[in-house]
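Hi,

I'm pasting everything inline rather than attaching a file, because the server keeps stripping attachments. The sequence lines come first, and each chain or strand is labelled.
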Amino acid sequence: MSPVFVFARLTVQEASRRRLLLALVILTLLVVGFSAWGFNKITTVTRSDGTVLPAQQVTLISSQLLIVVTFMYSGVLALSAAVVAGPLISSEVESGLLLSELARPVRRSEVVIGKWLGLAILVTAYAAGSAFLELTAVDWATGYVPPHPIELVIYVAAEGLALLSLGLLLSTRLSGITGGVIALVAWLMAWIAGVVGDIGTGLQNSALQNVGTISHLLLPTDGLWRGAVYAMEPDVILATLRAAGTAGRANPFSAVDPPPTAFLTWVVVWFALMLTLSVWSFRTREI
Amino acid sequence: MTVPRGEIFGFLGPNGAGKTTSVKLLLGLLRPSSGEAWLLGERIGDLETRRRIGYLPELFRYQGWLDAREVLALHCELAPLPRSTWKEEIKSALNTVGLSDRADDRVSTFSKGMQQRLGLAAALVGKPELVFLDEPTSALDPVGRHDVREIIRGLSARGTAVFLNSHLLSEVEQVCDRVAVVDHGRVIASGTMDELLSGTAVRVRVSGLDQAAKAKLAAFGPIDDEGEQLTFTKLDIERVPELVSTIVAIGGRVYEVAPRHQTLEDRFLQLLHEEEA
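And the predicted assembly:
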């Protein structure tokens, strides 16, 4: 087996043996259970005249609530990716664990790519698994299914992968705790910068809009989040937002258009850049 | 400096002399700022050469969530050895280091000494032609140290070259064919044990000498000063009467004079004194 796959397998194995996967599965099942109960309440809640909400209103409320719940999932994924990726290489350099492995016929690039691949498998599997469970629960409780569930999973997983890539790059040079904290702060700043960009759009202020655009280029997590939001919005919401003009775009939990192709192309380039930089950084590090 | 096949080569030096750095340079873990070196006929850094090398780092650590057998299987995989040989390789390595009965236990339950034994086993998989052992007995008890010496002799007997970094000079003296002493990144002496340990050391138990008086004894060569115990690390046996009369003349009282064959520790200290001078 190529060393890349050996290190990928080790990363997955470590997450499993250290019970990280078990903890995530149990917590996710709890969240799915509670949210299913909550979504079910929407269908049974009565207004002051004693009537239940009409189906269209249930759909509207469910779609907006699902966006908020998905924001929590994307947060869990981003936090987990940053916290796990932060020490991925640095802790093994500091402890000396990598010394005997790198004395084997193994390239440092194979270590970096293997660890990225292993964690990427975990992030993607968690995004797909938790989305399947949550969407199934919402469908069961309300009958609502978002219009683009596959795209939703891809965007949420890509957001986690972006944090993982940034954490891994930092891990090649900084201690685990420092790398993890920087990745988390960067993720929050990117989100806030996206909100600033939204306000700029609402006010038609190009300077503020540029803040959002630049943050999307530096760390594309917020741009990907908007893609996930768009994938969850039913047509009626989109029509309302479009009718509101620029004001309809000034909201971090809404998206009027899917992410442009140029942005998605940049995301691919960004991932390639992050991995290349990580390999170069680790290759030139003295251990 | 050359280390031939089958030789046990000791690499000595004080803390910070550059011993571990030298090993890391040879293994391609660090990049040299200048100079050249070859391992098994190839320039350092060659990936293929690493198939034929074993390494026990000074800072040894293995995945605590794996068991000993899995750690060795990982090293077989990275070596890389044919899968059909893994079982026998792992069994043999575990037997050699005395960990057969703990093969299926998680590494996190191992003592430091057992982890060092596991590291030695990992260095031995694939029957390497050259083994680097960086302080291989630092965490071991006397029995473990004896075992490691036997393992090193066994490696040499089958033609494997052993590059041994160690602070334990008596250990080096017992197993090494040849040694080099390094200080501040430079080799200050090298040779076989016979070549290095040709002199006589004289230990004198004395009182009544202050530092100024002791300085007057510098003519008798390097002194390892331990208070009332003065060891003249390289002194011709014929000069012992002259030494005693000088000590008495400058006010010292002599209780014991013990000439002995120079040990590696005497020679090591002597070399460092000379280097400082």
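Chain B touches chain A at residues 24, 27-31, 47-48, 50-51, 53, 55-63, 65-66, 74-75, 77-80, 119, 122-123, 132 (CB under 8 Å).

If the labels don't parse on your end, tell me and I'll reformat.
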